[in-house]
Amino acid sequence: MNRRDTALDVFRQSTAQTAYVNSMRMTVLASGSKGNSTVISSSRTRVLVDAGLSCRELLKRMAIVGEDPATLDAILITHEHIDHVAGLAVLARRLNIPVFFTEPTHRAWVRMLTPRTTMSYAKWLDHVQREKEARAASVAAQEEAGIDIAASAFRSDDPNATLELPVEEELGDSEAPKAIAPKEKANPAHLPAVEYFQAGTHFCIGDLDITPFTIPHDAADPCGFVFEAEGIRMALATDLGYMPPNVKLALKRIDVLLLESNHDLEMLRDGPYPWSVKQRVLSRVGHLSNDATAEFLQKDYDGASAYIVLGHLSESNNAPELARISAEQAIAGRMTLLGNRIILAQQAAPLESIYL
């Protein structure tokens, strides 16, 4: 290769990089029932939406697609289900970045990470008896030492005492040496910083204008997002049982749309899930079927997107080609090289970044 060819290669690379300086980018790291995570970037800001894989796997997938985790400004959470938050705490602490939730979602996530156990009645009685014996031993020791003990110092057993104790709490001998007491466990829900937002109220992170919207799903306060920067709009709408009017309105004038197409109705009905799970998926707080997604694309979609990314495809109850064909038939003649291109997000591997 001569010097002229080398110079041309450098120029092409420089031109390609410059073309993306004033752009937005969506990178779907994973989408499905085993884990969901997407990077949304503007020229100055990068956020991660959901962290549904382990920290190690998320970092691995970011490396595969050339996303530098050190440049992330924040993590946003759609809802508290495990396939959206599995690696959240570890990743946020490792990168030392804030996490944005709705307040009910944060509370639900903290409860999920703080397991508690309920005592049986027999165990509670045993606990009470041991407390009595400990108090009696303490009184006897003070009497021997000549200490006058007021009657008011005694308390009767509280019949309304809570039976719920943290799992890590030990009900050991009260006189056990403090030196050998077990160390206090670290708080599994600790995060570097927590910020709250409300569905329907837009907020900003850097130059990203973000509008969260309520979605119908069986979580504490689930939401989707619209991201806007430099005149480009990208949206994520997965994990919703149907398409209510507010979601249809939010998904207008979107340039890149990540939209759920979870299951094929016949495959779900004939599939391996227990009937109770099938009922949940089919409910109005479950997941969008291929047919429901196609109905939205045919009747309510405005045709404005350059790319439609079909996400959260069930590995057990869907086939990628069924989802693709259903969506393509719904948008019919509106598919072109410059608009309404259908892409399928994957569970096992990240997608190449979509630039606009």
Automatic annotation (TrEMBL):
Gene3D superfamilies: Ribonuclease Z/Hydroxyacylglutathione hydrolase-like. InterPro entries: Metallo-B-lactamas, RibonucZ/Hydroxyglut_hydro, WalJ/YycJ-like. Residues 34-287 form the Metallo-beta-lactamase domain. It comes from the Bacteria. This is Phosphoribosyl 1,2-cyclic phosphodiesterase.
